Amino acid sequence: MSATRGWSLRLRARPDFRVDLGALQPATLARMTAADIAGIEVRHGNEMLALGELFDVAAVASENPGLRLEGDLSRFDAIGQGMDGGVLRIDGAVGDRLGLSMRAGEIRVLGRAGALAGCEMAGGLIEIDGDAGDFAGGALPGSMDGMRGGTLVVHGDVGARCADRMRRGTLIIRGDAGDFLASRMVAGTVALAGKAGAHCGYGMRRGTLVFAGTPPAAPPTFVSTHHDIVVFWRLLRRNLAYHGGPFAALPARAPRRLVGDLAADGKGEWLLPE
Amino acid sequence: MSELESLQAGDADVGNTPGLRNGVVIDDTFAEAFPMKATRVLITAHNETWARHAAVSMTGFATSVIACGCEAGIERTLVVDETPDGRPGVAVLVFAMSGKELAKQVERRVGQCVLTCPTTAIYAGLAEGEPIALGRNLRFFGDGWQISKMIDGVRYWRVPVMDGEFVAQESTPVVKAVGGGNLLLLARDTEAALAGAEAAVEAMRAVPGVIMPFPGGVVRSGSKIGSKYASLMASTNEAFCPALTPLVRHSELDADTRCVMEIVIDGLTEADVSAAMRAGIEAIIGRGAAAGVTRISAGNYGGKLGPFHFHLHKLLGGERAA
Question: Which residue, among B200, B232, B233, B206, has the nearest Cα to B219 in the 3D structure?
Fold first, then answer.
């Protein structure tokens, strides 16, 4: 396979205000020159600023349209927003709205992510090595649906309201989750290796929550079912095992199953491997 | 002297030609086959017995598209490493003359024979093709309690039933396929014809991608197109009926041939059908004419109806006689 042009953007200095990087798409940048890229204007606080004033731009060989961001980007928001392909790698922390509404491609963050990571994403893969803030895989305020497809993997902890209104896709959490995990969840799969905060599954309508670690106490609006779900479990377990860690060791026998939230549609499920 | 006698009399000269193998005459003719639409589904269950119960039921009354709507059969048994859910299973192939008819047959048969069978689940067995519904419509049996689940980009339906859940993949791909490959086994008597046909079918079942849809893989009522009765689209193939040897204007049989069996082959590809026919012919040749099957022929319509022609001599590596 011939190498495609990729780009590396090294942060010169931490900006004074927050910067919106939603305009940067690996596939688009692959067709541009270094000068063109340095000239892209991004919002910095209340003003527009050329990208070249924030980053050193360098070309790198890449198999796919690729973009590598280096430095502490915790003040940079909307990285990978609406991404539709290519590979984006961030060697450091990122701000809010990582991969917002992305449809395809891969984002890998070696540090932590702010709020709304993978928010309303519809496809592709986001992998965050550190923690993720509130509303990871969730919905924007006023939106009916959160994450709509793809896979979001968080190796650290996630904040509150993770997977809020999530409708489709897979969300893997290797650490702990904050309060209201999977609140108002519509469908999809969330797998949690660590502990969950308060009010887990609040208003959950459908969807699947898998607790590979210590499960939270079931609220009174969740009830136990006793039927054989081994077929579905084997399909799901094999998929989760791909993500390694505690998910690779999920037992083959069918887990205990709770359904709820009966205060909502009541067709969501908690799977508790024993 | 009949064709059989003349070939067998020329032993030393023709013993290694495609026309005569181990005393078995291979006719210089071809099987004529037709394009069909096909899909493969994988049925799994708590154990192989129940998977097979479902598969046998689903492939029942599916010998010929003439009146069954489709042709279906068990392709092979699947071990646990080969199935999506890691349970024992069975691969089933279903063939029909159109994608629309295939969709209708698959939905009816899965709904009545797999959904109903204890512990079963059903999955698509092909990777690519135009999708038709598998669990997409059967999910409504769940009366609102059904659950959709996307795993690895594949949608499954979980329908609550009395033994737990019926899991069905959303759809199954349909591919272009080949139907109507055939072999005619001409034997000295019924015993020999059956034994030869059974041996051939056993060898052909080892070939992937094919089914022999008739009972036991064998059909004794080979047909020709049309009839003296206007309402019938097919009728008995009198040229291969021993009862009619001295009566019809043209018979393919001599006085020593008292029983003929046909094996019909449907395959996912032309190569699959070729491989199966070759395996069947070689099984008969391996038994030799002394076992009672003295001649192998094939059914065709003069090459005017079906685009796939399987020449028996070519299958054995020889060139077709002019």
Answer: B200
* B145 interaction partners in chain A (CB closer than 8 Å): 267
Per-residue pLDDT tens over the stretch A179-206: 999 999 999 999 999 999 999 999 999 9
SS3 of chain A: helix, strand, coil, percent, to 5: 10, 35, 55
The answer to whether B158 contacts A232, with C-beta atoms less than 8 Å apart, is yes
C-alpha to C-alpha distances, B85 to B62, B170, B315, nearest whole angstrom: 27, 15, 38
Which chain A residues are Cβ-neighbours of B84 within 8 angstroms?
235
Query: CB under 8 Å to A108, separation ≥6 — which residues?
Result: A87, A88, A89, A90, A127, A129
Tens of pLDDT, residue by residue over B260-311, are 999 999 999 999 999 999 999 999 999 999 999 999 999 988 887 789 999 9
- Cβ atoms of residues A209 and A257 within 8 Å: no
Q: Which of B311, B308, B314 is nearest to B298 (CA)?
A: B311
Cβ contact B163–A231 (<8 Å): no
- Name the token pair of B169: 């993949």
- Indicate the residue of B86, B149, B163 with minimum beta-carbon distance to A234: B86
Contact across the interface for A231 and B150, Cβ inside 8 Å? no
pLDDT in tens, B118-149: 999 999 999 999 999 999 999 999 999 999 99
- Which residue from B185, B177, B141 is spatially nearest to B159, judged by alpha carbons? B141
- Mean pLDDT of all residues belonging to chain A: 94
Q: Does A226 touch chain B (CB under 8 A)?
A: no
| Chain B CB contacts of A168 below 8 Å | 150
Question: Is the separation of the CB atoms in B114 and B58 below 8 Å?
Answer: yes
